[in-house]
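tool_call predict_complex ligand=zinc ion
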Amino acid sequence: MKRPLTFKAADRLLVFAPHPDDETLATGELIQLARESGASVRVVFGTDGDNNPWPQRWCERRLRIGPAERERWGRRRRGEAQAALARLGVASDAVRFLGWSDLGLTGTLEHDDAAIETLRGEFERYAPTHVAMPSLRDRHPDHGALRVMLELALAKARAGCVRLSYVVHGRDADAAALKVPRDATRHARKREALMAHASQISLSKSRLLRWADQPETFEPAEPGGSIAGASDGGIVLSLPLAPVFRFWRRHDVVLVIENGERIERARIPLPRLAGSTARATLGKALCAGRVDVTLDRGTLQIAIAGDADGHVRGYVKLDRTMPRVVIFDDETWQRFGDFSGSYAPSVETVAVAQRASL
Ligand SMILES: [Zn+2]
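tool_result ok
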């Protein structure tokens, strides 16, 4: 059952969009609903969407896109996002562009601690009651990577807020989703806001309008690990591998392990031969320093040593390393281990607390 979303005047909605136009496509009606209730809204963009050569070639009638052209396109897309948000009721001083690498956020997640601190600062300064952000299940690599970075930052900030996950690319939210109540005026304004993204409308108008016409739904907090793991002084994850992964595509296992304070990452090339093991060493603080990745009859076994108490939690993804014609992921990020302590309050517990205080 889909439950309707509501806001109160004291609420503060913080929206994270990996690229300009995600804010309108995923949260155009949510933002209006929050503003109508008197809630404050802030929108943060991860990238300027500047690595977007085909619409740029079309709009600018040029083949070669160099750094100067890319920068110009990024500026254009920032302006379009500001215009779209103005139509949705968000003033320019409530919008921030982080300017991170478009199509490069997996690398930002893997290498840039300062980026996670920047996100943590957003949570600490704005103190949102609600955060809207991409789902881990979104098949665009920037969307999934931004979500993992946001979870790391939320854990560091110990921010207790309602987490609303949206999917732009991939399967729609499940049956337990929260839903923005349909309203013709809000929907019409969302379509107007989308038209402000003229650079994207140029090649994809009907596709984008089709997306914008979908009801806005959000998955509530996802407190559990999405892959079960046998636990014995650490964790052993089993990922079934489709033949396509084993034979002709090159992938790495990317691991992010955290404990709310420290973050460790590892990138381990997939073993090519059945029965073979690839090994990585992590910092000793979180998991006793070892990860073993073994390919065993079509299943990838990832054994991660735990900390002193045998605990380990984090995120794992099979990341395609071949040059990409299609940018979308075959496999998305998955969460493993025990996150129960880092997820408070969920939508459900907020609802219960409000009832209890009546
Ligand atoms: Zn996007």
